[in-house]
Specification:
With 241 residues, the protein is of the alpha/beta class. It contains 11 helices and 12 strands. Strands 1-4-5-6-7-10-11-12 form an 8-stranded parallel beta barrel, surrounded by 6 helices. Helix 1 packs parallel to helix 3 (64-73). The chain is globular. The N and C termini lie close together (11 Å).
Length: 241
């Protein structure tokens, strides 16, 4: 059964969603991320994905206080990403209560540092962020595209011991037009032992069913929940029971 992971993206202390990573497209859905996390827990979710969009843009973690409050006021297993660039960033994220951290840009700009983190924290705590646009890895809050192709990127780090990968097709993210199921299926075909977390584009429960049928291990989604496009009762009975 596919693992369901709701997302909270944070800008200026608010829960927001962007379209294809464009900060100018920001839409605020809630002003209290902690209350939103508690609501997700009440629904029956066990995991939460937090993205510090302020941090992603600032090149360092910004919203540690919100992370700490969510971790202290819920029992959700939180993974946190956005602005994790240094040893101190990563240490502070774990000290604030995150059970996992997602790092992507650093795996492009300073691969040796990512490998040090992988060795220090292990593959259960460190998630490789693979944000992709036109088959190339995008970095720094999706403001810059690297020259590295997705499969080559994954091959390097999976061979080095990475097990968990959060892959976002930027062209789908926030668009509510369906996820890149074919892309994720191709990744699973190449790396069958990878714990792939698909992200971007989920618009309805049928999209989640399609990912589940494609044997994708996990999915992150947010906008469809915030906009009431997913029947929560159906979601609970089918995937959260």
């Amino acid at each position: 059964m596919i693992e369901l992971i709701p997302a909270i993206d944070i800008i200026d202390g608010h829960c927001v969603r962007l379209c294809m990573g464009d900060y100018a497209s920001k839409k605020v859905y809630a002003t209290n991320p902690v209350a939103m996390a508690q609501e997700f827990e009440q629904i029956g979710f066990k995991r939460l994905h937090i993205v510090d969009l302020d941090g992603a843009k600032s090149q360092h973690v910004v919203n540690l206080n919100i992370l700490q409050e969510i971790c202290s006021k819920t029992n959700l297993a939180v993974d946190f990403g956005g602005g994790v660039k240094t040893d101190q960033d990563l240490r502070l994220v774990f000290e604030a209560g995150a059970q996992m951290a997602t790092a992507g840009s650093i795996a492009i700009s300073h691969p040796e540092l990512f490998l040090e983190w992988l060795a220090q924290y292990g593959p259960d705590l460190l998630i490789l962020g693979a944000d992709v646009r036109n088959d190339r890895i995008s970095i720094n809050g999706w403001c810059e595209d690297s020259d590295t192709h997705l499969l080559a990127f994954l091959d390097r780090y999976i061979k080095a011991g990475t097990r968990k990968v959060l892959c976002t097709d930027i062209s789908c993210d926030g668009m509510l037009q369906g996820p890149a199921t074919e892309l994720y299926s191709s990744v699973m075909s190449k790396f069958p032992d990878c714990h792939l977390i698909a992200s971007g584009g989920v618009s309805c429960i049928e999209d989640i069913r399609a990912l589940n049928e494609a044997n994708i291990p996990a999915v992150v989604f947010g906008k469809a929940l915030y906009e009431g496009r997913i029947d929560v009762k159906a979601l609970k009975s089918e995937f959260l029971c």
